[in-house]
Write a structure and sequence with these properties.
Blueprint (H helix, E strand, L loop, with lengths): L1 H16 L4 H16 L3 E7 L3 E8 L8 E3 L3 H9 L3 E3 L17 E8 L5 E9 L7 H13 L2 H4 L2
Antiparallel strand pairs: 1-2, 1-6, 2-3, 4-5, 5-6
Helix pairs in contact: 1-2, 1-4
Length: about 150
């Protein structure tokens, strides 16, 4: 697995730093993460002072909330805490904003700027309970860090 993840991290860095259209880069990043973990849905978001907004996603459909306030949902918790939020059963978490009725597990990984502000998130959803292990979390965090140029070059 380390060889695979290192290869993917290199691809993510290259995609994020490329001169391509930003939404197209974000979609390719989401696709790489989705395939890496066989996840149902991956979204890549911008975080502004007041709003979170989708850049691109990979999965069956667009999210229910393409934009929402920075203090709402599991994403709001990840932004506030500046660390990943992992929920094994979203049905039992009142912070969860329903994006897809079949989602059971979700992980939100914040992307931090060099000065420590949250400038983006990577949101991964699964239709399985407790779908995200510690190694999944570590892998998604590494992918988000490797994609930093997507936000810094915006």
């Amino acid at each position: 697995m380390p060889i695979v993840i290192n290869n993917v991290l290199g691809q993510i860095r290259s995609i994020a730093a490329s001169g391509d259209d930003r939404a197209a880069k974000a979609k390719r990043l989401a696709e790489r993460i989705q395939i890496l973990g066989s996840y149902r849905w991956v979204g890549v978001y911008d975080v502004g002072p007041e709003q979170v907004s989708i850049i691109a996603w990979s999965g069956p459909s667009a999210p229910e909330y393409p934009t929402f306030p920075v203090d709402k949902g599991l994403t709001g918790a990840a932004i506030q805490q500046k660390k990943a939020v992992v929920v094994g059963d979203v049905r039992n978490d009142p912070r969860y904003l329903t994006a897809f009725g079949s989602t059971l597990s979700e992980i939100i990984v914040p992307v931090l700027s060099p000065d420590g502000r949250v400038i983006g998130t990577v949101d991964v959803e699964s239709e399985r309970l407790n779908a995200f292990s510690a190694s999944d979390q570590q892998m998604i965090e590494q992918c988000a860090e490797a994609a930093l140029a997507l936000w810094l070059l915006a």
